[in-house]
């Protein structure tokens, strides 16, 4: 299965075929006051969106064939970044493939160290327990049995002696422009054959969950260990590029691995970044996503939710 499971008539999703190089310099974050912080985050969301999308032009063209579902496409942009709050001149390159603009989904090949990614999975395995779900008012855990069939554990960067998670935090901060202080602890997850996560949103609608102090602006998924090719386990976006009645109708079968965009687990160290909110901080209905059923092997990921308020 390719990254694009269905081409949209009359256009389709952006093709990952452009290569360019740009340079960005970060700046240190300042105000911690709530009102100023909300405004700052809104501006960051807008600038980060155009920061990523504005680099999709280039002067040279390359072509790459995807040999299997687990072969990543070539990057559309290669950015040299500096963490905005690092206080140092440290730089690193982040490769970006634009998979969708509605919702904004980016594939990041070689984002993290593959050996350390695998080692983190091994180190956390003894601590795993069945994954849980956020509950709406009045719901019970048994009401959601079978929706998310994985095992997981939350791990902060400070709890990882290898420095792997700290390095990931620095890169995603530089890439998004959102301070790492806005990030939740990493949720390390293991999926076994038959494991899945029904389609859902990472943001929490006030109408369903009550008033929220903050929202999950973006989600980062880093692959720690990946299954054999064509073994399922894709991340699907069933409403990618949806419009009109299709978007209004939403998803009827939350267990189906559907949609124009399905991103397969590629290699340890690769990552996927997608936004749950629009640049104006309103929720993006097209960001609905799910974890397709794993058919063989095991899939390990470290998920990082990034919020619009300091945690």
Question: Can you offer a commentary on this structure?
Answer:
This protein has about 300 residues and is α+β, with helices and mostly antiparallel strands. It has a domain at about 100-305: Jelly Rolls. It is built from 5 helices and 16 strands. The protein has helices spanning about 35-55, 115-125, 165-175, 205-210, 245-250; strands spanning about 20, 20-25, 60, 75-80, 90-100, 105-110, 130, 150-155, 185-190, 195-200, 215-225, 235, 260-265, 270-275, 290, 300-305. The strands form 3 sheets. The protein has a 10-stranded mixed β-sheet with strand order 2-4-5-6-14-11-16-9-8-7. Strand 5 and strand 6 (about 105-110) form a beta hairpin. It is globular.
Order of helices and strands: EEHEEEEHEEHEEHEEHEEEE
Structural class of the secondary structure composition?
Answer: alpha+beta
C-alpha geometry = globular
Determine the CATH superfamily of the domain at 100-307: q2cbj1_9rhob like domain
Strand tally is: 16
